[in-house]
Amino acid sequence: MNKSELSETLAVKYGLSLKKAEEVVTAIFDTLTEALGTGERIEIRGFGSFVVNDYKAYTGRNPKTGEAIEVKPKKLPFFKVGKDLRERVGH
């Protein structure tokens, strides 16, 4: 499912216009993105949690040439699935 399919499903399920459903979905994703951007942890009970993990710099390899390259430190979002979602989807 992509963002537009989520909007369509929301519109049909709750009797919203497609435009209003798109606005709701966009607002939710924008809010989550802003929170992660400021380092906040997001927990949605029964679904999972999102955090930003810090990764240190390291020496990697260019897969094409095998040449050693320095990879800069970075921050990346990480999702940890919640117990209820894990049980609904299966092991």
Question: Any overview of this molecule?
Answer:
This protein is an alpha+beta fold and 91 residues long. It has a domain at 1-39. Helix content is 43%, strand content 30%. It is built from three helices and five strands; from the N terminus they run ααβββββα. It has helices at 3-14, 18-37, 83-89; strands at 42-44, 48-55, 58-61, 68-71, 74-81. The strands form two sheets. Strands 1-2-5 form a three-stranded antiparallel sheet. Helix 1 crosses helix 2. It is elongated and about 55 Å long. The model has no long low-confidence stretch (mean pLDDT 95).
Fraction of helical residues: 40-55%
Number of strands: 5
Q: What Rg is obtained from the alpha carbons, in whole angstroms?
A: 19 Å
Q: Count helical runs.
A: 3
List unreliable stretches of 5+ residues: none
Query: Strand-residue fraction?
Result: 25-35%
Order of helices and strands: HHEEEEEH
Largest sheet, strands/sense/barrel: 3 strands, antiparallel
Quick overview of this protein structure:
With 91 residues, this protein is α+β, with helices and mostly antiparallel strands.
Question: Helices and strands in order, then pairings?
Answer:
Layout: H1 3-14, H2 18-37, E1 42-44, E2 48-55, E3 58-61, E4 68-71, E5 74-81, H3 83-89
Antiparallel strand pairs: 1-2, 2-5, 3-4
Which features would summarize this protein structure in a list?
91 residues, single chain, 43% helix, alpha+beta, 3-stranded antiparallel β-sheet, two-stranded antiparallel ribbon, elongated
